[in-house]
Structure formats: C-alpha cells, structure tokens
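User: Predict the structure for this protein chain, please.
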Amino acid sequence: LREDSLFDQDDELEKRNTDLAKAKRALELMQVELNEARKELAAARAHEGMSTKISTTLAENERLKAELRRKEDELKVSAEALKKAQAAEAEAAEKCKKMLEEIKSKEGSMKEKDEHLEEAKKDAQRLDDELNAARKTR
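Assistant: Here is the predicted structure, written as structure tokens:
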C-alpha cells in the first residue's frame, strides 16, 4: 500500500510539475506578449506625439502662408503706388524739360530784343549827338 501511495504521490508530483511547466511556458508567452504590447504602446504614443508635432507644424505653415499672402498683397499695393509715382515723376520731368526749353527760347528772344534795344539806344544817342551837332552848326 505504501508503494502504491508513493507511486501515486510521485505521479501527482509529476503531474503538478507538468502543469507548472505548462503554466511557466504560458507565463513566459504572456510576458513576451506583454513586452510586445508595451513596445506597440510606446510606438503608438511616439506616433501620437509626432502627429501632434506634425499638426502643430501644419498649423504654423498655414499661418505663415496667410502672412505671406498678406505681405504679397501689401507689396502689390506698394508696387502699384510706386508705378504711379514713377509715372507722375516722368510726367513732371517731361514738363520741366519743356519749360526749360521754353525758358531758353524766351531767354534767346529776350537777348535778341536786348541787343536790338541796345542798338536802338546807340542809334538814338548817335542821332541825338548828330542833332545837337547840327544845332550848334546852325
């Protein structure tokens, strides 16, 4: 009886050892799965962080695009104002050129008239001198 009991106990221990080995393998497998899940979770968190960074960067890019469009519009307005100012300047320069030509022409005309006036004064003085001389001789 004792031998049967020992054999039974031995069988029971072997069965327990087998069950423990199976449980140990199951736990090891669960540990591997847990580690994989942790890695996946870390990757998901990193991906989520990158998604947030990307979203922030995209929002900043949109803000910069809007600012650039606003600056372009301001630049267009400034360019149009510059073109108008340049056209006005060119027109004023052309008017000044024409006025300068007119002034030079009038100066030439005045100089010519001054010369005629001087000649007329000389002629008048000469005639006056001749008239005085003729009066004296009479």
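The longest helix spans residues 2-137.
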